[in-house]
User: Fold this.
Amino acid sequence: MGAQLAGLLAKLDIRGPRDLLLHLPLRYEDETRLTPIADVRPGFPAQVEGEVAACEVVLRPRRQLVVRIHDGSGVLVARWLNFYPSQQKQLAVGRRVRLFGEPRGGFFGYEMVHPRVRPVEQDEPLPDALTPVYPTTAGVGQATLRKLIDRALQSEHLDDPLPAEILGDLRLPGFAEALRALHHPAPDADPAALELREHPAWRRIKFEELLVQQMSLRRAYNARRARRAVPLPERGRLPRALLGALPFRPTGAQSRAAAEIAADLAAPHPMQRLLQGDVGSGKTLVAALAMLQAVDNGWQAVMMAPTEILAEQHWRKLSAWLAPLGIDVAWLSGSRRKRERETELERLRSGEVLLAVGTHALIEDPVTLPRLALAVVDEQHRFGVRQRLALREKGEENRRPHMLMMSATPIPRTLAMTHYADLDVSVLDELPPGRTPIRTRLVSDARRDEVVERVRQACLGGRQAYWVCPLIEESEALQLQTAVETFDALAEALSELRVGLVHGRLKADEKSAAMKAFSAGEIDVLVATTVIEVGVDVPNASLMVIEHAERFGLAQLHQLRGRVGRGSAESVCILIYAQPLSQTGRERLKVIYENTDGFEIARADLRIRGPGEFVGARQSGLPLLRYASLEEDGDLIEPARQLAERMLRDMPEATERLMQRWLGGREALLRA
Ligand code: ADP
Ligand code: MG
Assistant:
């Protein structure tokens, strides 16, 4: 194989015969039948056979090869905008060819653009099976791929490492049989099952892929448990003191999660736990209890948050909770004055202060945490894998900190079992008592004035409101302008109220001043961009207005709505939308209107968007599944998980072969 071809194949992630085997068809084309030209229909791919009646290069409107084919029933035009002289020869007048393509209506009857051509003899037999079409890249033709794959099918040893009885239980074919069925469908194969990837051969390959994913996640999990961390035995003194001083009791879910975390922290290997809980479920308290377990043992703990606003809010809350216990919390953020920051850094370096809260300022160079034993990452999906790694590296080389990741974006069960299976998970499935459910209203923007009136009434009645500006993803400048204009308009319309503004371009101390004023009740209406999306907690705010709600994603809407409904007052979220709504826009608003449960919403989100963005947000370097679909093959995940555990334990050699087959040398990547 030439170096050039090898280079092109590498683009398709094909680095050897093994990768060729698993380079499976994108779809299939039915070349087993010929359609008389008179019977072709626009939009329905068809194969026709006939004689070339004319072949010419036309120069206008642009250079192209135009060919007319006739078969006795009619005439069809074929066009190529890019073509080689060899193609012209193949299509010389009088030649007999088969064309496969999608006909569309043209000026002179039906035409095909860039159909596949095959020169044929009179009465040449048709293939008796479906023709696979492979994903490819410019310069690698289908015929080349097919030839290479056929060669690999013959030369490679297609052993089957899966236990036969599992295949029997799941009614899946063997590996060799499955590959042959996919690369060379049998004449009687069900075309729909192949096309929809429901054929047992597809299921076999998808099962194997899920199995390998489970194996590599499981291995990463085991590797972590082999590393060392500072054991933080449960002493209970400080956590008990905090709970005793709080005006409320933890929910059952909070107690359960706290106990799971406490047990992990006591172990000599690093915890890697995801604390999942809907907005408002009280994750901060659970994190605080874990941090106190570190302090109880004389070690440091930090909490990292994605925005200044959130970091400051955490710092305030933790300080308020812990000051009475005589515990100081350092605060690191870009907004603090240089001298204040120096002091904080020194107090952390010397170990005088054991707790710190901050933004990514925490992972910057000057920060040293000689006794770091626990790192909490709030809204973990907002951070990239590198930032989380940097935080982990703040610990000493041979002493990894325990990691607690928190997220309010619930991960649907299938994703939790696959892409997140290397983590332990605690779930807060219960909201603190006394919350009244949020009512959601959908209002067309023609009725914006009524909404403004509603805000006035609520605020005159002593409540507070958020007003979220339309999202303008394309331009930050426009986003800013919109925010300022919205603020001006509302300040004028609501002249008897105090209206404030926060947006991403404000300096950190300005942002913080606005949030503080809102929190203290000195501002009635807070006009905001999505900087308030995560975590902000002002219980007296009971009205949330979101303009152009159709532009926001589901997770974002759910997060925004979660800013209200935190106190005892009845809360309302008004989603203002503009007509006409796109199909997805309509679908999303319907989901958010009908559901308040974050898990339901996440499931719907997964359905509407696919898993790409969820997993993309994790930025973990984990490849997406190539063939298995979490929605359609969810029933295979549990058996894959069970078999992975068993094979890792009892069948090391078969495990190795499988991982090699699917990952080659790429497994190192997955460990990041
Ligand atoms: P989230 O899970 O969204 O981060 P927070 O930790 O911000 O939620 O908690 C939301 C609000 O509920 C806070 O004001 C917090 O003090 C309060 N809270 C937490 N736990 C309880 C509880 N068990 N009972 C009553 N209120 C609680
Ligand atoms: Mg939070």
Notes: Residues 248, 250-251, 254, 277, 279-285, 408, 432, 535, 537, 539, 566 surround adenosine-5'-diphosphate (ligand 1) (CB under 6 Å). The two ends are 33 Å apart (CA to CA). Residues 33-126 form a domain with the OB fold (Dihydrolipoamide Acetyltransferase, E2P) fold (CATH 2.40.50.140).
